[in-house]
Structures are given as C-alpha cells and as structure tokens.
Amino acid sequence: MTPTAQPIPTSSPITTAGCHQDNQHWKQIIRQQEEEILQLRSLLHDVMEQHNCRSLRYDAVDYYRALNHLQGDINQLRRNIICESNECIYHSENASCKDTRYGLSATIERHATNVINEFNRVKDGCLQFLSGMMSLNLM
Fold it and tell me: The whole model's pTM is what?
C-alpha cells in the first residue's frame, strides 16, 4: 500500500537541509509508487495475455494505460521538481533553499500529492478489477 502523503512541517526560513529532507521524503514515496505501478502493470499484462474476453481486455488495457500515464507524470515530477543528482547533498545547514538544484522545492508537496491522489484513484479501480477476476477464478 502507498502511504498517504503526509505534509512535512517546515520552519521559516527554509534551509537547504530542509529542501534536501523534503526531496528525500518525496523521492521515497515516489519510488514506492513506481514499484506498485510495475506490479500492477505486470498483473494487468498477464490478464491481457491470458484472456480474450473483450470486456476483460478492455478494462485491463484501460488500467494499463492509466498506469503508464501515471508513470509519465512521475517521470516529469522527478525531472522538474525532485532533485536526484549528487549535487543535492547539502553542504551547509544555514544555506538558503533558493538553489536551483532543488527544482521547485516549495511546490513539491502540492505536485507530489496530486500524483499520489491520482495514483490511489487508479490503483483502487485496478485492484477492484483484479479482485473481481480472482473471485471469478480467472486469475
């Protein structure tokens, strides 16, 4: 299960150490989501390979596409907001958080929460679909 997005309390002024901590927090949550996306896509791929029933395939393809779209959103989030390079290691606790290596650190929570909420919505539908297949002994 993906953890619910928990806001990280920040104090003013935001330090580079705080930006680093925020980045680490969101990177971990995003990494967990990516693992779940891979697992769900694998299950859906198996459904698409094993069943020719149009309605089953249609639903599986629909969820598969939604998960692919979410993976694209996560990739964009990483590219534009989350700092993943070695340069993200902070050097001074008193440094300002204005360094561009942290991307849009002030908006990480908002953007990541939007992706998490969409992922949870897609995941819930996908799990319901897969549970229905299991209850019918189709998986």
Answer: 0.72
Report yes or no: 23 and 82 within 8 Å, Cβ to Cβ.
Answer: yes
Answer yes or no: are the C-beta atoms of 83 and 27 closer than 8 Å. no
Compute CA distances 84 → 2, 40, 77, whole Å.
21, 25, 11
Look up tokens 């008193």; give the residue: 94
Between the CA of residue 33 and those of 3, 70, 84, 97, what are the distances in Å?
Answer: 9, 10, 16, 26
Closest CA relative to residue 37, chosen from 78, 10, 68: 68
pLDDT, tens digit, for every residue of 118-133?
A: 999 999 999 999 998 8
**pLDDT digits 0-9 by tens, 36-81:** 999 999 999 988 888 777 777 888 899 999 999 999 999 888 877 6
From the list 29, 123, 108, the residue with the least C-alpha distance to 69 is 123
